[in-house]
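Re: folding output
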Amino acid sequence: MLSRVAEELSKGGGTVVLLHGNADPDALASAYAVQRSFPEVSIWVPGGLDRVAKVLAEELRVETIMDGSSPPRARLLVLDTSGPEQVPEGIDFSDAIVVDHHTRNAKWDSTTLYYCDDGKSSCSEIVYELLKLAKKDLPREVAMALMLGIITDTGFFKYARPGALVAFAELMSTHNLQMDEVVRLVDLETDVSEKISQLRGAQRLRYWKVGDHIVAISQGSAFEASVCKAIISLGADIVFVGSQRGDNFRVSARATQAMVRKGVHLGKLLGSVGSETSNGGGGHPGAAGITGVGDVEAILNISAEHAMKFLKKLDSSGDR
């Protein structure tokens, strides 16, 4: 099916690559690689870029379309987006191509082409495979972008699967790239506002002990994923951090790799919460999110209940 994606992108008529809100380096790197490899490709980021992705865009001079509620008339390619709820409402996806690496989402099944490989640690790996199938020669800066996508989505390889290491090594050796050339783009000092969000998240957290494990929740107004990581570092095993913006909410979740090895899959867990609350959730075993309309405190409590239910089953089975 990935070959079909390559065939479609090679046709005339242009392509608009759509990325999820607050797009991360993996999403932007994937889009940039497609833009540099296929004709008439524009990158649409209506929800903006995160801090590191902005650095990547500036470094490589990646041109993006930030504004607009609807894309220009062209083929639509959705990259690194686990569900339609992560992009603006009202977009017609019936003729879209979707390429993703999160937990498979039935909401994409109505699209023309839906390729999902949740065995990949990053979307950049899939795009790298796509470009090899299309027999594209990668410029050095495209290789660097894909390496950046891989390294950030694997948490500097802490959560990498073997394929991520193989792809990274291939890109590194083929294009004579050194590790420091990539790392310098993501080795940014934590912003003061992010530090404050982490501290406030720690102040507001609530937690439950289930056997030998701890589930925690907290609320804030920004940097949900960063607050999750901070609370994990304090000793929690599974964390949900949310924010409220009017009627809308956003929740990020993280779990330790020890929890993932014991069977925790946050993408599936938040997918269930999304179905239960008529919202959209999904992601990876150790990192996931859910967005939608509703009360964030209620969503956090429901998410924690799902996690504790899993841990109680784990405890009763004797697998600690």
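--- second protein (sequence, then structure) ---
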Amino acid sequence: MNLQQLDYFKQLADTGNFTKAAKKIGIAQPALSIAIKKLEQRLGLNLINRSDRNDLLTAEGKVLYAAAGQLLAHAEQVEQQLQELKDLNSGVVRFGVSAMMGSYYFPQVLVAFKQQYPNITVQLFEQGTAALETMLLNGEVDFALIRAEQQSSQLRYVDFIEEPMMVGMPTSHPLAQAKSISLATFCQQPLVLFREGYFLREAVSQYSQQHGLVLDIKMETNLIELQKSLVKNNVGITSCLSGIMSGDSDLTTLPFSPQIVLKMGLAWKKNHYLSNATKVFMAFIQDNYHADDLGH
């Protein structure tokens, strides 16, 4: 069994279809079929249910698939280590971050990093914090900015951000003159919210479930500019961080009472190899990130 066969098998399992997998890999379908057949012959096992389109993998195939991702990730890490021996100022960093944080909180830092380290490639993976934690555990990203209140025993954390969640609304809204807003009052308003799985939605969902409230959700979107436009046009109010609404005179933010605090940390898997490029990038964003610059 070689790495190419294992990669072909994983691509097939991920797509669930020989035609789609072959196209994604960039080979002819018969070549993929031959490669998978050789893998089965090498192992002496049937890995594919060729007569069942609804369940592609056999029981043996599912066992191999569970290990394939880890084996391929380990091989990639070894390759990274060897590449670093050639050039300590190059490499690839896989950084997981939510779309909101990536778009509003890191542009200046990312630009500055690229100017200082032009040969290091930063790949951004934009997901909610729950999905990013899963990607860390699966070795799909090197490190990520995720929630830090409830820490996984399989991850290491460095504290990074602690910021209160705010209520975003038009400056013309009847509640805009208040000093703060309770979660109970917020949940009784027409709302524009992030999708489930994001911190800015989680506290609201938990409160409504605990109190048997049916939220009047006018729109669910993770598109920040769309969300701001909907709020500005009185479709509903939203939960946000203050940096998102700053710089727009038609929008304002108020704190929740009692305060709801977002605590986020840089996290990576304990047994995951951190390349020199990753260590450089992690140190750079810690040294150059400034909360006062949020949204600017």
